[in-house]
Amino acid sequence: ATSSAAYIDAHGIVPAIKRALAEALSRFEVDPDDCRVLLDGSLHAPKEYIHQETIIRGDDTEPVISLASVMAKVMRDRFMKRISAKYPAYDFEVHKGYGTLAHRRAIAKHGLSDIHRASFCTRLRLGSDML
């Protein structure tokens, strides 16, 4: 499950992550009492998942969290390649939306698109120092 840039900007990244996590867990159609949920960093599953554990740097120590992290990155990179046709000026197929110099230059030239998380770009200077 994912959250749109608009949802993240309107509600914040933490609520967006919580919503996406709850949606993803509900898709498994398992009894929350009968499953174990391992999470990375500071994430928490909904309270009804009583067998949950949050592991700092879990992607370094838990193979299932590492796999989930790699899968999420691959899915995001594929999405950015697909969406690049709609936003050719940004070269998403090249930098996948990461804050590279090329991406920052595209934003300076074209402004933010509707898929950019504006709330993440508040410190982005759009002046000549980006070029």
Describe this structure in words.
- The protein has 131 residues and is mainly alpha-helical.
- Helix content is 47%, strand content 6%.
- The protein is built from six helices and two strands; from the N terminus they run ααββαααα.
- The chain has a two-stranded parallel sheet.
- Helix 1 (5-11) packs across helix 2 (13-27).
- The mean pLDDT is 89.
Residue runs with pLDDT of under 50 for 5 or more positions: none
Average pLDDT confidence is 89
Placed side by side, the strands forming the largest sheet appear as 1-2
Instruction: Tell me the number of helical segments per DSSP (H or I, 4 or more residues long).
Output: 6
What is the string of helix and strand elements?
HHEEHHHH
E-strand count: 2
Shape descriptor = elongated
Sheet of most strands: 2 strands, parallel
CA radius of gyration: 17 Å
User: In angstroms, what separates the terminal alpha carbons?
Assistant: 35 Å
The share of residues in extended strands comes to 5-15%
Given the helix and strand composition, which structural class is it? Answer: mainly alpha
**Could you estimate the helical fraction of the residues in percent?**
40-55%
